[in-house]
Each structure stands twice: as C-alpha cells, then as structure tokens.
What we know:
- The chain has helices spanning 30-40, 49-52, 82-85, 109-116, 122-128, 133-148, 177-182, 190-205, 235-244, 257-260, 341-364, 369-381, 387-390; strands spanning 3-7, 14-20, 56-61, 63-64, 67-68, 73-78, 153-161, 164-165, 212-219, 249-254, 272-275, 280-283, 291-292, 295-296, 301-307, 319-321, 328-330.
- By secondary structure, the protein is of the alpha+beta class.
- The protein has a single domain, classed as Chorismate synthase, AroC fold.
- The chain has a five-stranded antiparallel β-sheet. A four-stranded antiparallel β-sheet has the order 1-2-6-3, with helices on one face.
- Helix 1 packs across helix 6 (133-148) and helix 9 packs antiparallel against helix 11 (341-364).
- The longest helix is centred in the C-terminal third of the chain and has 24 residues, at 341-364.
Amino acid sequence: MLRFLTAGESHGKGLAVIVEGLPAGLEITKEEIQAELSRRRLGYGRGPRMRFEMDELTLLGGIRHGRTLGSPVAIEIANTEWPKWEIEMSPEPGKPEKVLTKPRPGHAELVGMQKYGFDDARDVLERASARETAARVAAGSLAKALLSKLGVSVISHIVQIGAASVGGAARPEPADLEVIDNSRVRCFSPEAEEAMVAEIKAAAKVGDSLGGAAEVLVFGTPVGLGSHVHWDRKLDGLLAQAVMSIQAVKAVSLGEGTVVSGLRGSEAHDAIRWDSESKSYLRDTLRAGGIEGGMSTGGMIALTAWMKPLATLNRPVLMTVDVATKEEAVSFKERTDVTAVPAMGVVAESMVAITLANESLRKFGGDSVAEFTRNAQEYALHLNENPSAAKGI
Length: 393
C-alpha cells in the first residue's frame, strides 16, 4: 500500500513528506522531483512569492544511488524565506509579534480557531495554506515514476479560468505536456489562453481573484484498478476524495459527468466494441471518464477539478468579524495570487498519480519494481482470454 504524510507550515522552516510503500529499485533523482516542483510554480497570475520560492530539496532517506530501497522515502523542502519568519514562526516558547483576529471568509481560519481553541488565525492558516501542496507534488513525482513502469502517463491542462474556457477544443496527449507547460496559463488551446490571460488581467486590475478548472488525463491505465465490491474501494470515489482534498477545490467530475446527468440513457453511456487487432475491448467515447462500476476500463481516465476563487483579495472588500472584539471588520490580507488554477492542475496530477499508484500496487503487489512489473505484464497477457475456453469447458 502506498501512503504519504506531509508536515510543515507555509512560513515555517520547511515542508517534509514521507512516502511509504514504494517497491525497491525505482529509479528516481533529485532533479526529477525538482522539475515537478518547478511545474507547480507555473502560471500567469501567480503572486511574487513564486519568483523567489526555490523549493530547495533534500533527500533524507529511502533512496540510495538513485534507487529506492523499499523503505520509507523522506524528503525535505526548505523554505527560502525562513530568515524573515524565524521569530514569528519559532517553535520555541514565546508569543507572536502580531495576532491575527480577523479571519478571511472562505478560508479555514475561523472554523479552525473554533475547533482548536486558537485566538490567532495564523495558527490555522499556516497549515491550511496551499504551500503544503509542494510536498504533495514531491510525493506525486515518485508515484509518476512508478506508474511509468506500467506505461502510464498523467498530465493536466487548464480548461477554464474565470469565464474563459476551452469549449470543445481537442484534448492533449502526453507528448503535448511541454506545449502545455510553456503556455502562460497551462492551456492547450492558444485561443482560450488569450481569453484566460485577459480574464486575469481584468481581475488583477480591480484587486479580485479567479477560480477555474483543470482536466487531468491518464493514459495507459490497466484494466481493473479499484473495485465494485465495497464503497471505499471504488476508483472514482478514491480519485474524487484525493482531488477534493486539494485546497480550494470544490467539485470533481469524471468524463462528461456534469453533462450526462441531463441526458437520456441512450445517449449517456460508452458503447463497447471488440478490436480484433489489439485483442481488447474498446470504448470510442469518454462519457464515463474511463471508469465504470468503480473500476478502470483500460481507456483514458479524464477527471476535472473545479477550483473556487482564492479567499485573499488585493482590495479590502471581504467583511468578517474581529474575534477579539466581535465587531464588524475587513478581513486581513496575506500575500496572494490572482489565480492559482494552473498550479492546481499540477497538484491534481500528483493526487491522481498517487491514487493510481496505490491501486496498482494493491492489484499487482511486489517488493521490487521488477516483481511489480512482472506481475502486471502477466495480468495483461491473459486479461482477455476466455476463462471457459482456457479450462476446456
């Protein structure tokens, strides 16, 4: 079983992530993890922090000479701003210089303060911050490396920012990822990119923020990841939970899930056909998003994550209550982005990859990468055989 745990605060000394369950012999380098973290910082509309946030990595354990050992992998991501925050975020006994008492609407702060009995919103916001997703992307890079041994690729592209969307534009393929990442908003459609940038500029001009949507596409998924037999083994449910856990994501849909609910049954499903050349069952449409009955069909998986506008604005308009005086007030402001949708797409890739890697390990097992891939190959070899014919019935 693959699982990970992150620790650290937004302006703390750094973030840490421990990934447990990776088989031995997986090739991975610091540069590969660093490259994924750099992708998370992409996107027009990001704030100034992205210009100096270097994501300095240290591999603390679980990797030797470029290969996993089968033991937990531990990674530290240092905060290059730590010297500015060493007093305010010190773990030593003492008091903060400034107490934040005007929680932001739409953020975790007020409920977190109530839940844990805090009187300072920083005790909540530091951990609730999306800075934590850097640790998830580091974990996701390991999951992607494992999935690549099965021929599985995970990419994302932005399909909406504000009111601008790609409409019916063609979906990208893995070979298009460089083109996507070179886009100012990680959009595969040049026309939609221009409209999205215009939306961001307009929102920035008035100090507002924007939400949007990213589509995650998975290519080469094996048949049968997940299960129909229990509610907590269904692959679509697992993916939805993983992606919904990303800060500010408020909805997840599979395939054409937001459309098919308004169609008749005769229009809403993916017809099945047998392909004699590949000796496999195929579906030419993607209405179910590559998952039926909680299991992967072997086709492309398509998942869309919908992100709300960020809760911090560059103009003082969001009203709240000062928890110290109970008087009406304008919520405080932290450094913010106009939109973080392009980055959210990269984080969603990571959460999808981690979920699929875990389900792949559950299905194929193996203490080493060699054993894992051998089991998967044997499964694929006999996947579409007729069991009755094979037994001579």
